[in-house]
Specification:
Number of strands: 0
CATH class of the largest domain: Mainly Alpha
Largest sheet: none
Helix content: over 70%
Order of helices and strands: HHHHHHHHHH
Number of domains: 2
CATH architecture of the largest domain: Orthogonal Bundle
InterPro entries: HTH-type_Tx_Regulator (IPR050624), Tet_transcr_reg_TetR-rel_C_sf (IPR036271), TetR_C_23 (IPR041673)
Number of helices: 10
Strand content: under 5%
Organism: Roseivirga echinicomitans
Protein name: Tetracyclin repressor-like C-terminal domain-containing protein
Structural class: mainly alpha
Pfam families: TetR_C_23
């Protein structure tokens, strides 16, 4: 009986969470700003205030969870494709960006109302702090595979920082999409391809690695 009661309680919490997120988005779209207070927000939904706090501490935490939802939706979608396992790391990151932008398109009006038009790369916006942790896990998994296949190079001190470069790349892509006024966001698609190709060209074996190898050879055979 206890297990059944716990299961029902968890299900109710999930339902409340989804209901609150959906209602919050609708409120922003209809009014152009946040609800005046959590009390007024839940009153309109005919939900007890405690139900909100069982799921979120504030509207900020609710927004953070929305972004994590969109990230999880994206990763689930690309990994569900049979061909995904055969993708190179470059193709996996491209698939992520293209799919993520598709997810964002469905929520563009909400995003334009709640996110600053320009996100500075030197800091992580509050709504993306939890998102960044999950994004890092995904990217590091892709990069780990890439190192094994030598699609990207293991470089002293540098390879541990590859993720930081990908995070700046993500902010660039997101900022570009926010300001993109081209038909069907064609310019964003082009920006994604160029940004990802550049990053993998830099992380992959190149002239610098050949110079390092040659230097090692000369040192060992001096």
């Amino acid at each position: 009986m206890e297990k059944k009661a716990t299961s029902k309680s968890s299900k109710a919490k999930v339902n409340d969470s989804e209901k609150l997120k959906k209602a919050y988005i609708e409120h922003i779209l209809e009014h152009g700003n946040r609800p005046a207070s959590i009390f007024k927000f839940v009153k309109e939904l005919k939900i007890k205030e405690e139900a909100f706090y069982e799921n979120f501490n504030s509207f900020d935490t609710l927004e953070k969870e929305l972004w994590r939802d969109w990230l999880r939706e994206t990763i689930t979608a690309i990994q569900a494709e049979e061909v995904y396992a055969e993708y190179s790391a470059r193709e996996k990151l491209l698939a992520f960006y293209f799919t993520f932008i598709e997810v964002l398109k469905s929520n563009r009006s909400f995003i334009l109302l709640t996110v600053k038009k320009t996100i500075k790369p030197e800091f992580t916006p509050a709504h993306l702090k939890e998102f960044r942790k999950d994004f890092k896990d995904f990217v590091n998994e892709v990069l780990a595979e890439a190192k094994e296949t030598e699609e990207v190079q293991n470089r002293p001190y540098i390879s541990d920082k590859y993720y930081e470069g990908i995070w700046l790349q993500f902010l660039f892509v997101f900022n570009f999409w926010m300001k993109d006024d081209s038909k069907a966001f064609e310019k964003t698609d082009e920006a994604i391809e160029k940004a990802v190709n550049l990053s993998f060209d830099l992380m992959g074996k190149g002239p610098l690695d050949s110079m390092i190898d040659f230097g090692k050879f000369l040192f060992q055979n001096r």
